[in-house]
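WARN retry 2 of 3 for item q-0093 after timeout on previous attempt; input resubmitted unchanged.
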Amino acid sequence: MSTLKLAIIFGGKSSEYPVSLHSAASLIRSLHKDKYELIFIGISKDGEWFAYDGDVDAIEHDTWMDGNITPCVLSCSTAQKGFLKLKEDGSYETLPVDCIFPVLHGKNGEDGTIQGLFELSGIPYVGCDHMSSAICMDKEMAHIVMENAGIPCAPYLCVYEDEYLDYRHIYEEAKAKLGLPIFIKPANAGSSFGIHKIASFDDFEESMKDAFYHDGRGKVILETTIEGFEIGCAVMGNKELFAGSVDEIETAAPFFDYEGKYQMVDSHIYCPARISKELFEEARSLALKAYRAMNCKGMTRVDMFVTPQQSIVMNEVNTIPGFTDTSRYPTMMKEAGIEFGDLLDKLIAFALTR
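OK item q-0093 returned
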C-alpha cells in the first residue's frame, strides 16, 4: 500500500507566524512516518510560498528559508491536484498531494481564507471548512450564531471603524450596557493580540485603536468581563463527534495573554480541570453544542469561562489550536486516551472521509 502524500503548511502572513513554526515542528516529529510521504510548504511573513526540503529543526528555529527552498503555488485545478514548483526558466514541476494539514494560526490561516483555496484545489484538508473557519474567527459572527443556538455568551457591543468614532460616547454606551471593567478585542485576531481590559476612560481610546490595528478589518468587540476562570475542551470529528478532556487555566495576569499562552508567564494549566464531575460533563456537552452550531469539522478547541456561581459561559472556538507537545489540544486528547501520533492519524482520516 502506497504512503499518503501529506503536505504540511506552516508559517503564514500572520502575527502568529512563530507559533505556527513551533506547532509544525512538533507535529512533524509526532507523525507516524511510515504512513506518510511528507511535503513541507512554508509561507513567509510576506506571504511568499515555498516548497521546503530540509530539516525540521530549521522550521522550529525559523532558519528554513536559508535552506533548500523553491517558490511554489497551489494548483486550483482539480485535474492537477497539488503544488506547482516554479523554476527559474518559467517552467514548473508538479508536486502531487493527497491531503493538506495546515498548521497556520490566526489571520490568513485560520479565518477561512486559505480553506477556500484548498476547496478550489479539490484536495482534502484537515480542519474546518472556509465558512465555519470564518465564523469562528469573527467574534461578532460567533456571538450571533452561538447566541441563536442558545449558548450562553458574554454581553457585547460591536464597533466598526468606518463609522464616525466618538470614543467618549462609545465608552459611555459600553459602560452602561456592559459594566466595568470592559474587555476590548479585535474581532478577527488570535493569541490575545490587541486585547485590553479597561476600567476607566483613561486608556479606552488607545486600546480601541490598538484593537482596530490588530483586527485589520475595521471591527472591534467590547465584552462584559466574566468573573471566574477559563476552561477548554478539545473536540474532533465530522458526523460522530468526540469531546476530549477539559483543562483549566490559572493565571495571575488580567487575562490569558500571549506570554501566558506560549511562555507560561504567571500561568499554569491543569488537565483535567479542577472542577466537579457534573461541571466537567456540562463543559464537554456545551463544547459539542458549540461545535455543531458553528458547523465545525475535523477539530476545534472550545474555550469557556466558569463563573463563581458555577455556570459556564462561552468564550471562543479555535479552529486550528496549538500543536506542540505541551499545547492544550493534544494534551486534552492525551488525557482522554489518544496519544499525539494517533490523534494526528484521526484528524487526517477525518479530512479524507469528509
